[in-house]
Design a protein that fits this description.
Helix content is about 70%, strand content about 0%. The protein contains 20 helices and two strands. Strand 1 and strand 2 form a beta hairpin. Helix 2 packs antiparallel against helix 3, helix 3 packs parallel to helix 20 and helix 6 packs parallel to helix 20. The longest helix is centred in the last third of the chain and has 33 residues.
Length: about 475
């Protein structure tokens, strides 16, 4: 009896209260998004709200069951769960409905019941990452130490994106890079990720914009200048020879100066000039620093060469790898097309719904955009627009503050863990919640592409609710065990 009372006392009840509060308010908004005027009660189990109530009740039972299990089971079975999930992801395409659902083969259909294994793949990946990186004396000392963790993340992500054709769920796996950063990964890796995003946006957005002088694409030229600036920055920081480094800067300026001068009489393709300059500068950094044994500048040179190849491949990937609807959404975000009644309809209507809510909202079940069903997928991907219309700025701010409190709580739980497995898993859970929150609200507001990411505890669906519940309650169980050990 004493042990049971100690176990109950060690559970983080504040986090559970946040979980119950978010699930409750999420259910209220699903009811608002799916409510019809001919309904007699919001507890009709034939409606989305009624079905979600069943999912919430089952999720609470699932969470309670997780807390009763021996905490050691999650560590010992991590790899087995991960391997089993990989097999299930591969089998999902064969078990999904013929033709898939909206072009995606990520759902398993069992009669009227549908399950999306991708929602649980994040959990098994988090456990596998925590298991591998939680090993005794494991450190991220070099890029070689990242190979296996990246493979653990990349395998399910690639299966989901390529085999199941579900890009949105696959992108969430990028959140584990934040866990790597916490475990000692160099900040330069994050810099590479930011540079990749910036180069992609610039290359696509300004691809058709001609240069004011000479010939070539403004997008490619700006990308090459950005890569050159990054290389020059590190050269000036790392190279201690004053004359040498400023001679390189002067040479680059001279190349562009001569090109501008020649362009007065003969048209010059500045894309080729800029690409050649970056490649020559990269080769210079690699060759000279091999002799000087300066690995930092060698890596900068390799980064520049890869960036040139990546930038030139962005247009091909955009036109030939991405699906038409994915290209349309990116073009909409980048301002390359304006279709308020086409691909931009969902986002446009969601913005109208949120804006019409004002400060205090129109009231529960009183939103005109919501009740007239103007916003497609409003109970799932665009549920935040219901919050904005019916509860206003106060309601949306309250939801964001509640999520902020939950994520900070998760970080605090992760930080107090003495066990490496529990700490790394805790940061994985916090990163997953942060990514889902950021991407979902960003796409509803129109600042990120629409990629079908659910809002935790708010979007309708049993798979996502169970997935988030498992993630959260396993962490609470590990935390309770850690607190019990400290006593």
């Amino acid at each position: 009896m004493q042990r049971r009372s100690s176990f109950i006392r060690n559970i983080d009840w504040w986090t559970i209260l946040l979980y119950i509060g978010l699930c409750t308010f999420g259910w209220m908004n699903i009811s608002g998004a799916s409510f019809s005027f001919d309904q007699t009660t919001v507890f009709d189990f034939g409606t989305l709200a009624g079905k979600q109530l069943v999912w919430i009740a089952s999720a609470l039972l699932l969470g309670g069951f997780i807390l009763l299990l021996d905490y050691k089971i999650y560590d010992t079975t991590a790899y087995f769960l991960y391997a089993g999930m990989i097999l299930l992801l591969l089998a999902t395409r064969f078990l999904s409905p013929p033709g898939g659902i909206k072009g995606s083969y990520s759902w398993i259909a069992l009669g009227s019941f549908r399950l999306q294994p991708a929602e649980f793949a994040k959990l098994t990946t988090a456990l596998a990452i925590a298991k591998y990186m939680g090993q005794y004396e494991y450190r991220l000392r070099s890029w070689r130490d990242l190979l296996i963790p990246l493979a653990i993340i990349g395998i399910p992500a690639l299966i989901i994106m390529i085999w199941e054709k579900e890009t949105g769920s696959a992108l969430i796996f990028a959140c584990f890079l934040l866990v790597f950063y916490r475990q000692g990964m160099s900040g330069y890796v994050l810099l590479c990720g930011i540079a990749a995003i910036a180069l992609f946006i610039i290359a696509i957005k300004y691809d058709s914009t001609p240069l004011p002088l000479g010939t070539g694409s403004a997008g490619l030229f700006i990308c090459m200048l950005l890569i050159l600036c990054i290389g020059l920055f590190f050269l000036l920081q790392e190279n201690k020879h004053y004359i040498e480094k400023w001679s390189v800067v002067g040479s680059i300026v001279l190349i562009f100066g001569i090109s501008l001068l020649v362009n007065i009489w003969i048209p010059v393709n500045f894309n080729w000039i800029s690409i050649a300059t970056v490649i020559l500068f990269s080769i210079y950094l690699i060759v000279t620093n091999l002799y000087k044994r300066n690995p930092a500048l060698i890596m900068v040179g390799l980064f520049m060469l890869l960036s040139v190849a990546y930038t030139n491949g962005c247009k091909y990937a955009f036109n030939h790898v991405l699906q038409p609807h994915q290209r349309s959404r990116i073009e909409l975000i980048l301002g390359l097309r304006d279709e308020p009644h086409g691909v931009g309809y969902n986002v446009n209507q969601a913005r109208i719904a949120i804006g019409s809510g004002g400060l205090f909202g129109k009231g529960y079940h009183q939103g005109t955009q919501t009740q007239m069903k103007f916003v497609p997928e409003q109970a799932t991907d665009f549920i935040f627009s219901t919050v904005g219309e019916e509860w206003g700025f106060i309601g949306t701010a309250g939801v964001l503050l509640a999520f902020l409190a939950l994520i900070l709580r998760l970080i605090r739980i992760a930080e107090r863990q003495k066990d490496n497995f529990a700490r790394i898993y805790g940061y994985s859970v916090a990163s997953i919640f942060l990514f889902h929150l950021t991407i979902n609200i960003g796409m509803v507001l129109g600042v990120l592409p629409v990629i079908g990411i659910p809002l935790p505890f708010f979007s309708y669906g049993g798979s996502s609710l169970w997935g988030f519940t498992l993630l959260l309650f396993i962490l609470l169980r590990l935390d309770a065990a850690g607190a019990e050990k400290m006593r």
